[in-house]
């Protein structure tokens, strides 16, 4: 058998043994490991439950007097499900989640233990915070950080083979209340959105008690490879992506992978993932093959965006841990294989009232459609005013390999509404009004405004920010990132757009203008001023990149390092502060962390490239050359030796250059080090890779020890 595939063949034999046993019915399993409102209602007295419910639903402060009672109920619920420990589960600025487990057990002498869990333990904990990124917010002399229960996201149980842990979603902040995590600004931005949108809705006649939040559904793309290859690829183990690898003879050219039938081995993995996600109350809905070989997707039904962000972190964690049980490794990196499609995490975002009204759903009544138009105007203004923030929210060293490549949205932020809505917008701008009624249009009940199509929004896969009928799909987020910052930014900029337009609307109404006329006026103004950000064509097209940047004046922040500096621009400092989402110090800290993580990521890759080339690829090459020297003097051998020697010298030279760049730092500040690795280390890595990939195509399969793309990419 070909050496390539004997490994896969062996691993298939291994896997069968660990298959999970069939599960119960979905509706029995669903949310069985989530502490739901129902669970609490049945365990708490009516007054206690009512008080807690106010905290859950309206964000009212938790009544300290009931904390002990609630903690006891939670502990009992968790222990009945086999949990021995609890943890505040939080999201520091590493992009992943953190947990520190404490046991419920307390020794009481004489070899006895009792189980305890107090209200104060439920509400607040103090992990040793000095080792989390703080961007200077928490100097070591004041190294304290607190995690505080976030009651708006339900507690849940995480299981492992030998036990279970009660996880309590929490925020993480420094002693003086500055955010050290991803969740705090997200929660603050939700409040900002509510504060801005409710007054607008009131002008449209919303009932008292209306609250508004955002909804989010995140589609997760990922690659699967056989675990045995993973262990033979130090670049995958340590950097999450291949730093070497020639293009295989067969990649995604045949376009036969997308939506193709899913091999049993992968389906077993997917079913296992889904069973666990169901137990956690994560409404995962869709599974399919993606474009590249070995690439797949998982998508849930949308939820409240704070809960969705927690669920997204859990989904990534469970996809990764479950893959291992199946002898597979899930790669969440944005670009694990060069020359293949990368992976994104499309964030579907909308706004909804507490009565479940989707504010971006064109409505049934003229009134609702005026409102829809008003929010579209706010969205257009928001995206144009804050292209920089949307770009920053998806910026990372790893996503830089994807944005702007041929399959991902470009680094330019533009917006897509589809031809039908765009035509409506243009008619409003030109003042054509309600003439030319068409079938299938929803009446605006207005002589000054045209009707809205019922199912607007055609398809465009190249737009970074597309309206898809009743929500926006932000396609630029990367597959490995936390979705908290993109959500925070979408909430914040929409809050800002709505707040500003609401002021204008109120002024018009106070002047005695009719609602439809006022909305028409505002829409026209906004559209004329901001339509440069709307683009329906091919976002991958070079001509568009030129037009966007040079004719329309849109930002083209090609790499993360072009984007990060904008975070602390006066406009953004003022915006984040005005809506109470992050203060200047918090923003500066985040920016510092972004530069630092960027530097560290590329620095690790640079060192890895050097090490692998020096200690694996060069020896493989020299071994093969030695074989050739012993193979006689035929023309073929001589030609091969000449070609190999040329490339080997090139590899050696490229390595010297990389080694030198790796040894330098470019400065002291995170900012300077980041620019050094972008401008010096990345190009030097690429040079080494190009030569090495050329050698991979020449060296005998027996001698080339790294698994190749053609081996790894076809999980069968
Ligand atoms: P499409 O066919 O456009 O991909 P789907 O209905 O399959 O649309 O939805 C894709 C994703 O968008 C799913 O995760 C879905 O839950 C999410 N989604 C749908 N409606 C909303 C909404 N109102 N708010 C946020 N996300 C939504
Ligand atoms: Mg989609």
From TrEMBL:
Q: Which parts of the chain are coiled coil? A: 637-668
Which intervals hold domain GS beta-grasp? 84-177
Entry annotated with the keyword Membrane: no
Which of UniProt's keywords are assigned here?
Answer: Coiled coil
Q: Which InterPro entries match?
A: Gln-synt_C (IPR040577), Gln_synt_N (IPR008147), Gln_synth/guanido_kin_cat_dom (IPR014746), Gln_synth_cat_dom (IPR008146), Gln_synth_gly_rich_site (IPR027303), GS_Type-3 (IPR052725), GSIII_N (IPR022147)
- Signal peptide residues are none
Specify the GS catalytic domain's residue ranges: 182-617
Q: Name one Pfam family in it.
A: Gln-synt_C-ter
Q: Which family does it belong to?
A: Belongs to the glutamine synthetase family.
Protein name, entry field = Glutamine synthetase
Q: Which organism is it from?
A: Deinococcus piscis
